[in-house]
## 1
Amino acid sequence: MSLDVENLSISFPSPTGAHMAVRDVSFTLHPGRVVALVGESGSGKSVTARGLIGLAGAQAHVTARRLALNGRDLRALSPRDWRALRGREIGMVLQDALVALDPLRPVGREIAESLSAHRWGTRTERRQRVHTLLQQVGIPDPALRARQRPDELSGGLRQRALIASAIALTPKLLIADEPTTALDPSVQAQILGLLGRLRDQGTGLLLISHDLGFVARLADHVIVLHHGAVVEQGETARILGRPVHAYTRTLLDADPVRHPPRAARPAPDGPPLLAAHALSLARRGPDGLTRQILADVGFTLHPGRTLGLIGESGSGKTTTARIVTGLTRPDSGQVTFLDQPWVRGGGQPVAESARRPRRRAMAMIYQDPLGSFDPRWTVRQILADALPDTPSTGRDHAIASLLDRVRLPASIAARHPAALSGGQRQRVAIARAVAVRPALIVCDEPVSALDVSVQAQVLDLLEALQRDLGMAYLFISHDLGVIRRMCDDVLVMQAGRIVEAGPAARILTAPRHAFTRTLLDAAQDLSAA
Amino acid sequence: MTRFLQRLAWRLAWRLAGGLLVLLAAASLTFAALHLAPGDPVTAILGGASANPTPEAIAAARHEYGLDRPLAVQYGLYLARIARGELGQSFSLHMPVIAVLRAQAPPTLALMASSLGVAWLLALLSVVPTARRGLSGAIASTLETIGAGLPQFWLGILLLWGLAFEWRLLPPAGNHGLPTLVLPTLSLAIPLAGFLAQVMRESFDLALGQPFILTARARGLGDGAVRLRHALRHALLPCIGLSSWAVGALVGNAVAIEIIFSRQGLGRALFLSVATHDMPLVSGIVLFVALVYILAGLAADTLFILVDPRLKGTRP
């Protein structure tokens, strides 16, 4: 059983003629082996995967010199034959089970559908099989979990359930398209382990990822795609160890883990820029139970320094950021900013009017800047809005120098956010943030949605701006590589509490708390180094 | 499961309380209309300016309705009467309002139910097989837009002329049996189906682009099963909300349709009662329509939870 692909090309019609999404991809996938497709967004990885199971779309034009499963030509398959093959001989796992499984149905029914679509067994046998499968992917208490919907399961459990639905009929080949993207590092490590077990049991894996560390742990053979073309392919150790092509090197160097950690700087004396003290917040969930979202969170941030906030999703990182920015009021505790009260919980809130004069000293950058721009505004309007005090005569000049500061050409000012790439958009967001010369920028996962090479450029930019303008950053990220590179001090959060705090160099090399060690171990498992 | 039922019961209780509030508002409005309208409320109660009641009758009615007492007391008495189900006497029909409702509501409710049902059927048939399917999708979508734009009364007249008078396929008027229901139903259902289908097509299209659809196809599921088992359920939610709005709109449109097809019904009764200034009957019908609208909202609320269980809000 093997999948032979030779010169696979996929194109889509476009107003300017056929657009080649993928050009001449060739590889052979054997049982028990792992082939990885690596590249940035738009490189054609996912299109390739979909083309292999005949799901590239009605518009797609798929050609190949050879596309054969176990000697059987797939190019001439009828829709009925494709359906018989999908799920039974080739399974597929997508990223983010919250949307890759039908959110309205219990996961058990989704898995059973993989069986019933191929008329496997009776209803009772299928239910049995679902439970066995859930156990097989490491989900305890399968009878209960089968009845729950994806939104009722944790990120790790639902991603396993998604994998269970793909391997229900034990297909010999499994395509995993970004199977761990958007998951916490510890969950990523679990999924990595599960995929490794499947490979050891003889499943051939086609792994699609932008994460070289993840790929290095699993793949035997790596194919690097750039703009739909293969720039390099070969044994994993060779590609990652001795890359020949410049683009592969760019990808490898962009991995934040390869960047030297931030140089330790002595703890500053003098008053802190921002001080949070004993922040607590409880909220009633939709089920009527009250949950402690933050408990006794306190920290200080000095001018010109970067404080990293790490922890798994739901640990309270973003809530902390929302309190610091004055968007959410805590039940108790207070925040002092620029030596005056900024946020106070309890009976005596700080009025927004008292904050307003200092608002310009604090700016924000989000994970997805697109949502924080008015889509009808041009970049010029977005930036002009952040420069209300600049006289209109000097405004164009001010905008051009802002764009220059974030290394964007001045010509971009006339464009709309939707017409920009993700990296350009984040730069515009940064330009808007620094336009008011803030003393503090709150960065909530600022590079998580960006490709690694773009990520590296944006991180470079943030470092340079801090050097030039002396801002402090409150930096939220789930990526320890990014934290290591950017932060002077680190707070580790778990379930709304700070479990460990201190200089980044100490915490990331000699953690004291067990949870921090778990986070570091998971990150270690995933790193290519 | 019991906690789910408990929560559902709470939700229903809340909606019921809200519904009562709406009824109270409707009752207050009709009360206000009765008293703010020009002229003596007694003449309105007794049949308008042309009725020419005797002074004794006026005095008797004034006393019966408590009109010789302060306004606040009158309001209280009015609400108390409604709470007891006493909606008064329709002078234009010379019978109690309750009896009018009992006679006129069933044909209108039947017309509304059949219109809503047919509209759903048409919308489903138009959307499910054609969404995201090139030419057929474009044609169906155009037909839906045209359908949504057709005025009900114009469509009714057209159907009446074509199917009843020219081809004599269906009876043009009356209340007897299913054949007489067909043309009024179509007149109301086709424009509503257009609206429903437009909303359904948009959400169906959106659902078909979701990753879980790709997952389902990658399992080997056929296109039909993907549409019916996965996409359709996601497309239903906005349509349910629209349907509860449509119940209210159908009553309004039933006025014209019942007159065109000479049908018995609330719409026609409402028209006649307004024309004859029969205030007790107008109030009674308005209250009844408000009640139907509230019940439709309750039903939609329950259906929402059945279609999208996430709305129960039982997260871990």
## 2
Amino acid sequence: MTKISMNVNGKAVSRDVPDETLLSDYLREHLRLTGTHVGCDTSQCGACVVHVNGRAVKSCSALAASLEGAEVTTIEGIAQNGELHPMQQAFTDHHGLQCGFCTPGMIMTGVDMVNRYKAEGRDLTTDAIRHELEGNICRCTGYHNIVRAVEDAAAKM
Amino acid sequence: MSTGIGARVKRKEDKRFITGKGKYTDDVRSENQAYAAFVRSPHAHAKIKGIDKSAALAMEGVIDVLDGHQLTGDGIGNIICGWAITSKDGSAMNMGAWSALATEKVRYVGDAAAVVIAETQALARIAAEAVEVDYEVLPAVSNAKKALADGAPEIHDNAPGNLIYDWEIGEEAATDAALSEAAHVTEMEITNNRLSPNPMEPRSAVATYDAAEEHYTLYTTSQNPHVARLVLSAFYQVAPEHKLRVIAPDVGGGFGSKIYIYPEEITCLWASMKTNRSVKWTSDRSEAFITDAHGRDHISTAKMGFDADGRITGFKVDTIANFGAYMSLFSSAVPTYLYATLLSGQYDIQNIHCNVRAVYTNTVPVDAYRGAGRPEACYLIERMMETAAREMGKDPSELRRANFVREFPHQTPVIMAYDAGDFDANLDQAREAADVAGFPARKEEAAKRGKLRGLGYSSYIEACGIAPSAAVGSLGAGVGLWESAEVRVNPVGTIEILTGSHSHGQGHETTFAQIVAERFSIPIENVSIVHGDTDKVQFGMGTYGSRSGAVGMSAIVKAMDKVEAKVRKIAAHVLEASEDDIVIEGGEVKVKGTDKAMGWHEVGLSAYTAHNLPPDMEPGLKESAFYDPANFTFPAGAYICEVEVDPETGVTEIVRFTASDDFGTIINPMIVEGQVHGGIAQGIGQAMLEQVVYDDDGQLITGSYMDYTMPRAADLPFYDVHHASTICPNNPLGMKGCGEAGAIGSPPAVINAITDAIGSNTLAMPATPHAVWSALQAAQ
């Protein structure tokens, strides 16, 4: 067992966990933040994406023990003062979700992609959005409305 | 803004999903939770000679290791297929025994021989590795044709030659005669590729036994929790129905694969009783590939005959359907009553005959996957039509028009009676939206860039709203396929709708609320939908086959009719008017042509205070209804796909995808379009990317997302979706269903487009770059 401390969604947290604990398990099982989902075991589906120190990370592929002291943001942490994040708002506005299981990862990936493109001054075209979604699989929507949602949120972020 | 029928209302359920507050089965954790891990066969076919549990049992934190002999010894029954199909010689189908934990033999890679219950999930999985099963490996077969061949390994003792049934529909002699006299006969061998459904949420179960009450609670990823409870009780003998509560909370997609009651749920319930612990199991993706029912996997030969004018004179089909190692819950119905009954397509065909042989193989069980039989039928017909048009030098859309059914009702020779439709309208709308007239110029322009451009059609029809209970009963179904609903008006006028339908992405919390808010003229926020819990909803048949609108909503309408009748009586009594003069509008219940009115909430309050009700009226305002459909519904449409192929690499891009659907009445176009998008994406996945591959020994080659190609965003286009609707005459809202159309209609449109582009008709799904390139090379 190892004591792992992090800052998750702006709060300092600390838990004793088995050494092999993945970040996804640390969040889901130890902090009971169950908005982060696990949809595969080969790091392909992206349902588990969270932000670690400001970058999108697949939490199913990161050991919690390697993230001592990290700043972690999950889907539960992006709405501010009861206001939905523009990416969250865009997903509901454009019907970018159906069953909702991939949605937290999609939103976290979407936020990260818009932030990166803005920081680099690059144009986030719909082709670029589709390319950036390579690591996030949705089985319900056919991606049409997800791409539209990210495009809309990018204009508002 | 209107929230009624036809309004693009944003989804009420979204907030919890976009904020991470959805509650899926794996999010449920009981006090003192224990975890299950299954000991799964690495062999496709083997005898179990013995199981040594000692090493696993000795591990700290292992609670128990349980096997199939213990399970059957406790009286847990075999898993059954609930639809009896009779072979053409009158014999019953050969259903092999399927125990939730195997006893004598394992029959596919992944078949479970034992289960470990331990304090943590990680420990359970490690201990499962330590259980030693002594297998005697037997020869295996994974391909359905090979399983029928002489000398193939036999999988079940009571299914000689691995044959489950040999079934037929239609008139063979008349069809043969029509084909022999035809001016032109198109003949094809067509494979419908095997798929893995892959809802993004893996299956999961949390089973808790309460010894004091002798009562079980099961949280599970189910599309039909009441059916699960019925089957778990009546057939698997886990617990009587009143001692078993099944809850399907938020469910992350199903596509058919979460209809069935699998070995894992049964085992977790039983293990919970055995260990007196709450037992939880959550599949990982690799486990899902070897346990979730697969879909499709048909091999067919087909002949379609035409007269000199291009009218179809006869259609003859011979199909072999791979059922995998065991018969899953609805497996038998898929290649028969959900497939062969749709072989008339949108066309007036007088002579049809189809023979279907269902076959055991050493693979994962196969059952309904989005569309279930209808995609296989549609693919066959629409590939045949396009090919026939090319062979006869006719325009493919004109050949279709020459054969369209135009008078309704239309009785096909394969049971179905189409009730409404306008196939020309869908084809016209799709052709215009797809700018078919401009295609030659686009083809020419693409050629200048070295690309091959092709255009393909698909005019699909399907049967939804399954189904009239007496009809399906006469065809062998073990259940009735009605739906139930309860409308509870609270004393303050808010409304709860309890429904037997289950939403796992379809947006019922929004669309069901829309029809209620409109009917009673109240804010949509004042309506909530309750589903997915057998303790709350009395009964229901669940959601599959695009039935929640046509059947589930019809039950709600029927219950609302009863509520309205009582509201009218109460208001007429209180307002001293005639019932016939009562109108419900603007949040009030009024007397027509006067200023006399009660607020909607006042009617509710009157019903519950019961201070001033009509004589003999019971207090309260709550009504329930069961709705049994009068017919199937028949969604139909025309899809047009346009592709560009790079002849150097075979890489194919869908440059345009146009849909014109006839779904009858549409409650929420936003949600309906979303269903079409998702269906088309799955159809394109089948056509171009997805394929479950087994080697000859029954080892699964495509066992993860590293090997099985799920459609990604960059693989897919934006979809151009339109509607040209006729109203379904057989249900109160005129709905037909929209959940499966995209997956049914799109694969032939894609393959017809690619084969048009490359000028070769020899192309099987999935049309990977290698397959397309190879077909192109062979054609040159």
## 3
Amino acid sequence: MNGVTETDPQGLSPEDYATLCGFLRERTGLSFTEAKRYFVDRRVAARMQAVGATDLRAYMNLLRFQASGEELQRLVNLMTVNETYFFREKYQFDCLVNSVLDELVRGRPKGSRLRIWSAGCATGEEPYSIAIMLLENWSRVDDYEIELLASDIDSAVLERAREGIYDERALQGLPAHLRAKYFQPLRGGAEDWGPRWRIVEDLRDSVDFSLVNLADPQQVRGFRGIDVIFCRNLLIYFDDLGRRETASMFHDALAPGGFVCLGHSESMSRMSSLFVPRRFPDAILYQKPIDGGAA
Amino acid sequence: MGLVKKKAAPEVSPADAGGARDPLAALEDADAAVRRDAAHGLGHSPPPGAEAALAHRLQAEGDAGVREAILTALARIATPAAAAAIVPFLDREDAALRNAALESLQQMPVEVAAPALLPLLDHADTDLRIFAVQGLGSLVHPDRAEWLARVMEHDCDVNVGLAAVEALAEAGSPEALSSLETLARRFPDDAFVAFAVDAARSSFRGR
């Protein structure tokens, strides 16, 4: 491949950076300027190390020619990691309220409890989105006690999640009437931060945030009888064995018949054989067998 | 009803915490969750004899989650003994267990997985030879193409040879072209061999 030089241990050369960014723009539409240089360098270096690519030429060959496209997807996911916002990949929330919850409560008496866990919730957009979707779009929301759990390994982002303060970008996917209903504009500091909104207290009080390292079984022991786990675009940071262990832990945490919802580029079948893929009109989820998988 | 107001985060009760219980003993506990946690712990901090204990438990284990945890633990321990403990599960009737065992070997470092899989290329059981080819074909090792070439040139079963073709075609190994031709000559009346070899040949040339 022309124009690709050896990787500088301090980062990509200007030519390599341009080549990579051009490739990513062509394939994904993502655009990275020179200002994003450090951000891109770190992530590319991490992926090159993970796949054992000794130089950018080898890594670019993998990105271009890998039949599955898996490595390109991983890199893209890393590049978009900070792009979380309300109602991201909303079709999965649609799946929850249109199909999954009705199936889960079939045969359950009114008043029984449903437990939904947002694992790797970062700054809280996901669990709050789930809460809003439930309140707005699941007609039986008042028939059941719904417990929303949310966890992350990063205490700083959890603190922000509990505060529930968001900027315009985070709210870009939210219809205006929902913004008006569930958010209050924050006054003061607008010159520094731009417009910001705080999620209403009632909703903040409905999500139970906790600091959890998914790789530590002791820390996840309290999560039992979960009906739905959202764990989207998180396991890409784990190695193969870590993913298997986490899938196994989810299996343990779920109630029989419970579901795992992964990111759109992730597949449970590449991690574990403990789950059964279920295709719903809106999305594919992974279900713990009703019998728990006992042989 | 509706959304429940939050309470304290899920707590770990002292009884749940596991404490200082011997993980080898916990591996035989009646509670599947305890066995799963024990396997997880053994994978991260294996005492002497952990491989044998995990393999012994795996023989009898009926819970899919615990079996997965045991195989993952053995893959993480990744000693020759751990690899040797997994190999007997490659010929199980239970396809999920068999596949998980193969996957666990593939997730071990190549210097551990390859010595465990290579002897299987000479096993009398055709299925085991196919699994060995699949396992070896996924490893990143300088001798990988040579192992697969040997299969194509010498294995008496056409399906084992085709498994090698498939493994080669996935990664692209133009240096194996002559072995592909040999396989085609060894099974001249098998239309699928001709098709597979032709497809692999085209694939290599396209790279």
## 4
Amino acid sequence: MANKRIDQPTGTPTVGHEWDGIEELDTPLPRWWLWTFYLTIAFAVGYVIAYPAWPMIDRATEGVLGWSSRGELAEEMSAADQARATMREQLARIPIERLPEDGPLMQQAVAGGAAAFRVNCVQCHGSGAAGSQELGYPNLNDDDWLWGGDLKAIEYTLAHGIRQAGDDETRSSVMPPFAGAFDTAQLNALTDHVLAFSGKAESNPVGARIYADNCAACHGIRGEGDRAQGAPTLNDAIWLRGSSREAIKQQILDPRMGMMPKWEGRLDPVTLKMLAAYVHSLGGGEDFVEVAEDPEVAVDEQP
Amino acid sequence: MNNPEDNRPPGERDWSVVVEDGIAKSNQPVSSAVADPAATTRRHEPHEPAREHLPERLYEPRKAVHNKRIDGPFRRFKWLVMLVTLGIYYVTPWIRWDRGPYAPDQAVLVDLANRRFYMFSIEIWPHEFYFVAGLLIMAGIGLFLVTSAVGRAWCGYACPQTVWTDLFQHVDRFVDGDRNARIRLDAAPWTWSKVARRAFKWSIYLFIGFWTGGAWIMYFADAPTLVEDFWRGEAASVAYITVAVLTLTTVTLGGFMREQVCIYMCPWPRIQTAMMDEKSLLVTYKDWRGEPRGSVKKAAKNPDRFGDCIDCTQCVQVCPTGIDIREGPQIGCITCGLCIDACDRVMDDIGRPPGLIDYATLEDCEREAAGEAVKSPWRTLLRPRAIAYTMIWAGIGGALLFALGTRSHTELTVAPDRNPPFMLMSDGSVRNSYTLKIRNMESRPRAMEIAVESLPGALMWTDTINRDEASATQRVTVPADLVRAVRAYVAVPAGTAAQQFEFRITSLDEQRETDVVETRFDAPEDE
């Protein structure tokens, strides 16, 4: 039995235990404090009635308010969608050629495109849109475009994809394999000639003749490429699959050609527009004038 | 609830004393002021204290404090402080301050939505929160300073809890009369007239509480607009919630809990007890002069037996926290000095010297008790600790003012893209991308020049300036009072090595404020 007593100087009872001469005062708590405890109990009862509280087998009891965290999330999502509705509507209405003129809308499109890019495109093009030379995924940051780098061309590529069977409008080009067509010396000469376009090797007459006969039709006399056919530019510093002699030789003998899914039907047109705006904004986007040969570039002058 | 109260009639002391081992033990609390100093150590003696059967007390019911009206120098000082503090609180949001068309014209405004804090000519952004932290540190050290110089003066005069409690106690007096009338009314049965009185009083409480909350929200939005929106029911719901919460807390804390807040809830008295020393000014009952207590009549009969205290309990009656200062310094004493006013008045009436209860340091008390001369109040204030606190306080204040005076209203931060770190362009040049954040802290749009420095051959363009206009410097306009993010693309000719370089931002106005950030240009390693 604890020996409770009054502490003489303070007039307060002790708890009745002593540890090496140290005793603890048992100061009674003020009454309002006690009320606060009762208040918390009342609050808890109210909470249990109003909100989900008791865990059952596969769900918790539903409070009378009907609140749930999932429901709240759904509400917030729909509120966010509502908030974007105006922007999406504007985007749906504006022809993509007119988009850059509307600065704020363009900004929103770029932001929305960045989000969509992270969901749909990073798997191949990488989170920084830098692509992969090893796998042949194009870098979207630079100013070299196989099929055109203005908003309209990018949107077209996004919509119809590249080399997609079953889409008549898909971007498509085929480079024939030249395996067996040249001997080693001819192949070396041709490789030299191709590298010479960008000053990486000495040109030579043998390579030049082979190039003129076999390659110039698509890639152009000076290797300038042709976007209408999707023939890569050979006279610039950017090589989709690498600029080493081995890489070029392999590409001549047994060309690898990439594919890109068509996103029309999988993503809505507004998202496609936003994606195009984002890719265009990465630093290499082109204006419309420069790509007059693009198939879909007929600019709608009536907004 | 099991709380058997003491069954003795209240106010009657149990004077019985148990003598054990030659030591007198009382069954009643003995004030630390009168207990002999060895009492605290007595428990340590190796003996079992006498067993007592104590009733268990689960809680301590509040004893209502009905403080009596008093007038005197300290009461008048309290009125003055109340007037000044409430005046500052209610008037400040209505002071206007012209900042031009792009910023609000309220002198003191905490603009949470736009994350700006305005105080007269000072505008603070969230990244400058160290100013606020500095102010809070100054407030803390200011409290230390005040405590070490004049004890719990903050508690006694300026603390909002004290000011509002004082206000509510005046309401009590206005509605129910002075101390005795209020005690009578408390004890009276609930008649209709009492109900009416209480309803009237509590609606005044609510009114005060409402205006307390109502003034608070004015600091967070344009006051005239907010008042209009508030009464039209168009203000943000957070405004109504804040007013409701503050009404409730004001009425609860100021109207009903009062001294309980100081005694049980507030941490500051505890901290202060650790900061007081023998040189801190305290409201002190000079027990060597006052004890033993005896009425004027008794003293007249027995001239040498009694001290100056006539046990009139005026000091207890006027106390806003309901303590007896004669028990010595205690946590409930907020040192408001009202007991000094009361006691001096009584001493004056009976022709004894004033100052039986007075502001004094413990050191002075000992000196005075021993019959020596006391220090002058100024010498009491000017002691090394108070001076050291003043210097630290002023030093921080000076440093803050210096930082405020020399801060730049233009700032640049640069985040280089890390993925991809660099980009080869079709003409062989190498491009890096950067996100520049240009901060314009002036309340007007400003043209700024971005320049790339120490990077030979560099050309820069941005998300809004096309590549065909690329150049080593670009000009952008930053909106008033905002941060503008600019995507900057910097390209250098083929063959440039990776290196450090600088972005420089210069405001194109008479201020010519500038900021330089060093960052890195990445390039392919094998080229």
